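Researcher: I'd like a candidate sequence for this fold, 462 residues long. If you have to choose between options at a position, lean toward the conservative one.
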């Protein structure tokens, strides 16, 4: 054993050091990860072939191991961590040679590419990657990012560290638009770094804020990384839950969990949205606090407008922050009280099928014990009561075809329950309101009558 460590532990250290060195080398992350994988595999294979990497595995031929199997312990539950007293035997890291391991890994990668990319259903999901790249190119070529940065600089510039805060805000927007770290960092560096240095910002703060805000593209949806991981995580999660259900004696994961074992890209987007926003808020808060403690390194800057019109701080905050927030918040409030929502009144030809019990109760004793441990005795008792009520009612109600009178009655009910304003119309009106608010903020001293006419038209539609 090398340095008294297990061969697997040394292999993991080699992989970590190669990955760390590859990232610090300055190459793009995608190339650094792939290159470090090849280099680390070569090093581990060489050390293993030389006999320097020895893996201490449990001796499956020992009497102690046979006794555990006889007691009903599953082989996959026996490890050096759960039963450290078992006798061990020294084995190579690659028992059948590194050639076999390489062949199996290459075959696995090729098969997965064929199943998931070339012939699988995930090809539609992976098309989003191309759309994100196209969106990033559009932002760069159309100069939208530059205009957004100038607008945010006018809003936050008069505040201590305002330019740094505006960088974080724009970085969050670009991250949500492109989902690419490199594109965001390069764009922000070209647009913002000269301006920050010209206004006596600390080089450390300027470069740090740009680099930190650029990494938000990894987590703020939509993210290319989440899309790529989501296509693989769904299958891995489903397979793991099926194996978990089988290990406790249940027929499938749906029976054990009480819900489908599905993890979609949309679910990952929902899970990553709040952490991404929190990171952006923390970055902006750090820049603001740093400016308060070190005003000379992050001074307040008055950013003039492109049309030579002076925009005060109150006007910028009102039209660029308060008005959009009021429009979006008002739409959310109206949606919560039912004034904005779905206006679909379509009626199906069949009635809704009856609901089943929250948990399946016709299971084996082992599965029942595992389900009670997972969901709790109260949930199991509730499922038993629900199933008993369903049985007393004659079983689960099946979907039946509706008559013309029943469909007409259901149509009247749907019309009565439909929201007064549709979601699509509300979104269009909010977007028009944002356009009017932005126009007023860009030129606050211009004649407001055209904007009031537009606002009246929007109000009339509502």
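Model: Candidate sequence:
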């Amino acid at each position: 054993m090398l340095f008294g460590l297990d061969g697997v532990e040394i292999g993991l250290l080699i992989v970590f050091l190669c990955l760390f060195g590859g990232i610090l080398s300055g190459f793009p992350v995608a190339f650094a990860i792939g290159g470090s994988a090849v280099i680390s595999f070569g090093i581990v294979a060489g050390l293993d072939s030389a006999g320097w990497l020895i893996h201490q595995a449990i001796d499956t031929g020992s009497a102690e191991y046979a006794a555990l199997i006889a007691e009903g312990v599953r082989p996959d539950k026996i490890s050096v961590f759960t039963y450290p007293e078992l006798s061990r035997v020294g084995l190579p890291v690659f028992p059948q040679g590194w050639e076999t391991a390489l062949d199996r890994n290459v075959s696995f990668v090729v098969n997965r590419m064929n199943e998931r990319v070339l012939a699988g259903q995930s090809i539609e999901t992976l098309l989003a990657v191309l759309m994100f790249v196209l969106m990033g190119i559009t932002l760069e070529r159309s100069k939208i990012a530059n205009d957004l940065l100038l607008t945010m600089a006018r809003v936050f510039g008069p505040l201590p560290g305002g330019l740094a805060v505006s960088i974080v805000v724009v970085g969050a927007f670009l991250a949500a638009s492109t989902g690419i770290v490199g594109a965001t960092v390069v764009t922000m560096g070209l647009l913002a770094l000269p301006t920050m240095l010209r206004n006596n910002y600390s080089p450390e703060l300027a470069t740090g804020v740009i680099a930190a805000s650029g990494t938000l593209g990894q987590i703020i949806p939509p993210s290319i990384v989440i899309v790529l991981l989501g296509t693989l995580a769904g299958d891995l999660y489903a397979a793991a839950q099926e194996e978990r259900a089988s290990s406790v004696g249940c027929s499938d994961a749906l029976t054990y969990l009480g819900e489908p074992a599905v993890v979609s890209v949309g679910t990952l987007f929902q899970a990553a949205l709040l952490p991404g926003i929190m990171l952006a808020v923390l970055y902006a808060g750090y820049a603001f606090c740093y400016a308060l403690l070190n005003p000379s390194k992050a001074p307040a800057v008055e950013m003039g407008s492109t049309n030579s019109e002076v925009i005060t701080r109150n006007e910028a905050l009102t039209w660029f922050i308060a008005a959009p927030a009021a429009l979006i918040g008002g739409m959310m409030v109206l949606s919560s009280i039912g004034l904005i929502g779905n206006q679909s009144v379509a009626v199906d030809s069949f009635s809704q099928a009856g609901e089943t019990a929250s948990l399946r109760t016709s299971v084996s004793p082992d599965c029942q014990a595992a389900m009670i441990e997972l969901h709790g005795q109260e949930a199991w008792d509730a499922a038993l009561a629900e199933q008993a009520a369903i049985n007393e009612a004659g079983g689960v109600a099946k979907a039946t075809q509706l008559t013309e009178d029943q469909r007409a009655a259901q149509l009247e009910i749907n019309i009565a329950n439909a929201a007064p304003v549709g979601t699509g119309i509300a979104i269009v009106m909010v977007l028009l309101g944002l356009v009017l608010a932005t126009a007023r903020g860009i030129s606050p001293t211009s004649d407001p009558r055209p904007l009031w006419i537009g606002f009246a038209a929007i109000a009339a539609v509502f």
